[in-house]
TrEMBL record:
It comes from the Archaea. InterPro entries: GTP_cyclohydrolase_FolE2/MptA (IPR003801). GO terms for molecular function: GTP cyclohydrolase I activity. Keywords: Hydrolase. The keyword Metal-binding does not apply. This is GTP cyclohydrolase I FolE2.
Amino acid sequence: MTRLVDIHDEEPGIPLLIEDAGILNLRIKPLRTSNYWLIPTLSASIELSRHKRGVHISRIARLVLETFNDEYFDYNLVDSLAEKLLDTHSETNRARVVLKARVAGSESNQSILYCVVAHRNGIDKRISGSGVTVLNACPCALNVSTTIFGKPYTHMQKTRIKALIVTRNFVNPLELGLIIEKTFTTMKNVLNRLDEYRMIAQLYDKPLFNEDIVRLTAKLVYENYKDRLRENDKLRISVVSYETIHTFRVYSKLSRRICELDEELALSNNSRK
C-alpha cells in the first residue's frame, strides 16, 4: 500500500511566517444562553510557522464542532477552543478564535462578537463587541423647519452602532449591547397608535447627528466599563446612518485607549465648570 506523505508539513517554497491561517465563518448550530438564542459562526486560526507549508483544516474544523457540540453556550468555550488549537499544533505559538452571532428575536437586530487570542503563556487579548440598530431624527432639518417655518419637520434614519472593547479581561458582549440599547430608541415590531406617537416624540425631542451618537456611545461604554479595564485597553466605536433622503450613508468612528478617554473627558468636564 502506498504511504501518503503529509504535504502540509513540507517546507514551503517561500519560507514566510503567516500570522493567521485557518477557517473563516464556519456555521454551527444555534447556541442557547440563559435568555437568548444565538445564530453563530466560528472562525479559528493559528500562526503558521515559516517551516510549515499548510495548516490541517479538517483538524481545526473538527475541534470547532467538538467544542460546540452542546446547545448551551458559555464564553469559556471560546477560550477553551483557543487552548485546544495550541495543544494540537505543537509548532505554533499563537491561536485565534472569533465567535460572531446574531441574537435571535432581537428587535434591535443585535449581533455580538467575542474574539480570543491565545499564546503559550495564556490568553493575551480578548475583543468583545456588540452591534445594535437604533432610530434617529436629523437635528439639522428639524432646526431649520422649526426656526423658519414654525413646524417640526425632519427625516429619520436607521443607525447601526458597533462597539468593541479590546482587553485581556472578560466583557460580556450581550451586556454591552443591552447597555447601548437602553440609551437610544430601538425599533419595535408591534406598536399601537399611542406607542407610535411616543416613539416619534422621543426621536423629535432628542435629535442627534451621527457624530453625536459616536461620542455618546464612547462616553457610555467608558463610564460603564472603566473600572473593569486597564489604562491601555481600547474602545472602538463606529456608527453608520442609513439615510432616507440621500443615496449615501453617513459614517463616523472613534478609537481611544482608556487613559486617553480619562484625560479627554476630564478636560471636557472641567471646561463646563
